[in-house]
Write a structure and sequence with these properties.
This protein folds into two domains: 111 residues, Rossmann fold (3-Layer(aba) Sandwich); 117 residues, Hypothetical Protein Tm841, Chain: A,domain 3 (2-Layer Sandwich). The chain contains nine helices and 13 strands. Strand 3 and strand 4 form a beta hairpin. The longest helix is centred in the C-terminal third of the chain and has 16 residues. It has 268 residues and is an alpha/beta fold. The chain is globular and about 55 Å long. Helices cover 36% and strands 26% of the residues.
Length: 268
């Protein structure tokens, strides 16, 4: 049984299909408080664009992970693999680890070193391997081998990337910022236009894919046309084994800001 957190951003029904249990993170925007999976991203981004209040996010409590572990055990799991978003960006991993010490069955908690599309790519890869017959130990080894090796690029449809959440705001250059999550968040550069940002993100991923073939997860908050353009720049190119799509939910959107789009990929 696999457990992960809600920043994996599975499309509707896919987590259940793959046997993955989701533990929600929490969001507050003004007087609107909710568990991440309970909010429609379109409504969140509309409110975010209109709001003068910065959103805040919080990790699940250990008890929320414990409920997921207990439910998995009650369903017949004798070992649980919990894959969390980056411990460097969220306290979610710590909550999952605390809960593992109280679980009725053994739990291996692995820090993916990524989140959003990167976490989706990691968890879905492992879950599909299990569905194809991999043993628990093989799934655990695969998860650990991918940890810290799924990188992401992302940008925005405006020059005000991250104003809503504030992360890295002091480091964002003029123009359309291009950011990366490569174990830690950093600024990759800037573009003169959104179109150039699409091209530069694609170039970054294709350079890596030339030596390390990979599936790619392409996502967006509320700008599907930009995700479409990025997918078109990647699909069918050498080293790209396939493209999965997802919508960036409120927790990551609270920090990435409205109009965010980007992609995640496996590196050597």
């Amino acid at each position: 049984m696999i457990v992960t957190d809600s920043t994996a951003y599975f499309s509707a029904g896919l987590a259940e299909q793959l046997g993955v249990r989701i533990v929600p993170l929490h969001v507050k925007l003004g007087d609107w408080e909710f568990d991440e999976p309970d909010a429609e991203p379109r409504e969140f981004y509309q409110r975010l664009r209109e709001s003068e209040t910065k959103p805040t996010t919080s990790q699940p409590a250990p008890g929320e992970f414990l409920r997921a572990y207990t439910a998995a055990a009650d369903a017949g799991a004798d070992r649980i693999l919990c894959i969390t978003c980056s411990a460097g960006l969220s306290g979610t991993h710590q909550s999952a680890t605390v809960a593992a010490g109280m679980s009725p069955v053994p739990v291996d908690v692995v820090d993916s070193g990524t989140m959003s599309g990167g976490l989706l790519l990691t968890v879905s890869t492992v879950a599909r391997a299990v569905a194809d017959g991999s043993s628990y130990d093989e799934a655990l080894a695969l998860t650990r081998s991918m940890a810290g090796k799924v990188w992401s690029t992302w940008s925005s449809d405006t020059t005000a990337l991250l104003e809503a959440g504030g992360r890295l705001a002091d480091d964002v250059p003029d123009g359309v910022a291009i950011l990366g999550l490569e174990g830690e968040m950093r600024v990759l550069g800037s573009a003169r236009s959104v179109e150039e940002s699409v091209r530069l993100q694609a170039d970054t991923i294709l350079r890596s894919a030339a030596t390390t073939p990979t599936r790619v997860a392409v996502g967006h908050g509320d700008v599907p046309q930009l995700a479409d353009a990025l997918e078109a720049a990647l699909a069918g190119k050498p080293g790209i084994l396939g493209v999965d799509r997802y919508v960036v939910g409120p927790v990551v959107g609270a920090h990435a800001g409205p109009g965010n789009f980007g992609a995640s990929y496996l590196v050597a």
